[in-house]
Amino acid sequence: MCKTNIYVVMKNNKHITGIILAGGKSSRMGTDKGLLMLNGKAFIQSSIDALKPLVSEIIIVSDNPDYDAFGYKRVQDVIKNAGPVAGIYAGLEASITNFNLILSCDIPLVNSEILKKLVAAIDGNTQIIQIESEGKSMPLIALYKKEVGTVFKVFLKQNEKRLRKAIKGCTHKNIVLNKKEAYCTLNVNTQDELKAINYAYKH
After folding, report:
1. Distance between CA atoms of 10 and 202, rounded to whole angstroms?
2. Is 189 helix (H, G, I), strand (E, B) or coil?
3. Residues with Cβ < 8 Å from 23, sequence gap 6 or more?
4. Is residue 121 exposed (0-12), middle (13-18) or buried (19+ Cβ within 10 Å)?
5. What is the pTM of this model?
6. Cα dist from 16 to 2, 43, 110, 174, whole Å
7. What SS3 class is residue 156?
8. What confidence tens digit (pLDDT) does each residue in 58-81 have?
9. Is the pLDDT confidence value at 129 over 60?
10. Residue 22 CB partners (closer than 8 Å, separation 6+)
């Protein structure tokens, strides 16, 4: 893709869909993480707010009908209990755009500026562009081409549920954040992490 076309994609959000994965079992948290609150806002609302300036549509991937209250299209996992590979596949199947910003629902500090870095990095060959924060790649803060769904479908048929393994089957690159930006990518998996982020937010 030439630079002109990249600019068009960035300026015209009709070419991008936002997909939020909210289908995890949340076994360590003990409750649905997307519905947890930080400073009076549900975690998933933070993902929605980060995506809205950059996308034409938002799709929530979850079997939980409670998410319908947020007013966006909800799709269920086509393949149950297969983790984020299945969630991403379901979201990409439901999307009608070539480019898709994918977020998990447990990143309450994420913002649009982080996601703009992914959009700005679009090129003609890369199928997955993911954030790298403090030396760790983050495939659930990433931009996926719709065609990745076909690749993931093959992995799912082979009972391969490991997301990082599936990503290796695609062309991919990382966008590295600095230390200050890394704070925006914190995900919350346990009650202790929830308490810590609430404390940090208030202080």
Report:
1. 34
2. coil
3. 61, 62, 63, 64, 76, 77, 87
4. middle
5. 0.89
6. 17, 22, 18, 19
7. helix
8. 999 999 999 999 999 999 988 888
9. yes
10. 32, 33, 34, 44, 60, 61, 62, 64, 67, 104, 105
Distance of CA 162 to the CA centre of its chain: 16
Residues written for the chain: 203
The residue ranges of DSSP E strands in the chain, in sequence order, are: 16-21, 37-38, 41-42, 57-61, 73-75, 99-104, 128-133, 136-145, 172-176
Which amino acid, one-letter code, is at 101?
L
Structure tokens given for 104 = 């998990």
User: Which residue in 27, 16, 163, 33 sits closest to 89, CA to CA?
Assistant: 163
Contact 117, 34 (CB under 8 A): no
Contact 4, 86 (CB under 8 A): no
CB contact at 8 A, 156 and 85 = yes
Q: Hey, which residues does 103 pair with through a beta bridge? A: 20, 141
Helices (H), ranges, 105-190: 112-120, 148-157, 163-167, 179-182
Residue appearing with tokens 């966008």? 175
